[in-house]
């Protein structure tokens, strides 16, 4: 399986000029590599501009989409429009959308199914709110397995086993996003094993093995090897550090060594 290095630019940069500049720094540093797939997820408004500039070696994702393919849905962007623009991936259920836009697991499930129907690949984000805390007897509450288990079950409801190979699951503990407080490789590995166990329960072992699981939350060039090598992740989802072109290229270079 090739490793996935995903850059989630969120609501940045704020002008097309800056966006093109960032993209050019990244494009210069990335060579076509069958072991690593680099996926850039810029704001919607820049997607078509950047897709027109690409010389190879990069693929594109959107940061969200609607669950219908077309029609009277003011302000929404459909999976079919993204597919026809040249996207291959869509981030779905990012914690910032769950938090600020009140996206529910039911909405996320509809989006996942619509994305798959358009032959795009969803990058489904799951993750717990706080680091594990302990109850009064000192027993861990294990918020990770409770929250992540429930999100996966609800978000993938009625998704057939045959489509799991097209799904990327991004384990993104909310407490690690944008905080510089990254998850230990041990905990990331535990979460990844738990996600495969959940998929095995919902489908079966061979199906669970086919999903790609990546880690996201304060990834940078100094800690990326902990996830790619240490936690045996299928890749990383990079937010803040993907806005610095040379830092993102470094993350890519380090990941291509494994
Ligand atoms: P971060 O964001 O790398 O800035 O923590 C990751 C994400 O939210 O996808």
Write a concise keyword list for the protein shown above.
41% helix, globular, eight-stranded parallel barrel, alpha/beta, binds 2-phosphoglycolic acid, 258 residues, TIM Barrel
Distance between the termini: 12 Å
Strand order of the largest sheet: 1-2-3-4-5-6-7-8
CATH homologous superfamily descriptor: Aldolase class I
The number of E-state strands comes to 8
Number of helices: 10
Alpha-beta classification: alpha/beta
| Sheet with most strands | 8 strands, parallel, barrel
CATH C-level class? Alpha Beta
Low-pLDDT runs: none
SSE pattern: EHEHEHEHHEHEHHEHEH
Strand coverage percent: 15-25%
If classified by CATH, what would the architecture be?
Alpha-Beta Barrel
Bound molecules: 2-phosphoglycolic acid
The share of residues in helices is 40-55%
Tell me the count of domains.
Answer: 1
Mean pLDDT: 95
Taken from the alpha-carbon principal axes, the silhouette is globular
Radius of gyration: 17 Å
- Within the CATH hierarchy, at the fold level, what is the topology? TIM Barrel
């Amino acid at each position: 399986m090739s490793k996935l290095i995903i850059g989630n630019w969120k609501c940045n940069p704020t002008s097309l000029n800056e966006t093109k500049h960032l993209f050019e720094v990244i494009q210069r540093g990335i060579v076509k590599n069958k072991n690593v797939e680099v996926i850039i997820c810029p704001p919607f408004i820049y997607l078509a501009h950047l897709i027109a500039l690409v010389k190879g070696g990069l693929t594109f994702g959107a940061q969200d989409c609607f669950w219908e393919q077309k029609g009277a849905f003011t302000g929404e962007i459909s999976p079919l429009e993204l597919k026809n623009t040249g996207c291959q991936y869509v981030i779905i259920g990012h914690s910032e959308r769950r938090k600020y836009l009140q996206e529910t697991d039911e909405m996320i499930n509809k989006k996942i199914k619509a994305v798959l129907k358009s032959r795009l690949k969803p990058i489904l984000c799951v993750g717990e709110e706080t680091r594990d805390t302990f109850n009064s007897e000192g027993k861990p509450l294990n918020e990770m397995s409770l929250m992540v288990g429930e999100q996966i079950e609800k978000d993938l409801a009625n998704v057939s086993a045959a489509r799991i190979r097209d799904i990327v699951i991004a384990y993104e503990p909310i407490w690690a996003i944008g905080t510089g407080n990254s998850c230990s490789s041990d905990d990331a590995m535990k979460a990844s094993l738990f996600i495969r166990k959940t998929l095995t329960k919902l489908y079966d072992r061979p199906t669970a093995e086919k999903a790609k699981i990546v880690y996201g939350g304060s990834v940078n060039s100094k800690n990326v090897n902990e996830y790619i090598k240490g936690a045996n992740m299928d890749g990383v989802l990079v937010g803040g550090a993907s806005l610095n072109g040379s830092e993102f290229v470094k993350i890519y270079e380090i990941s291509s060594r494994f």
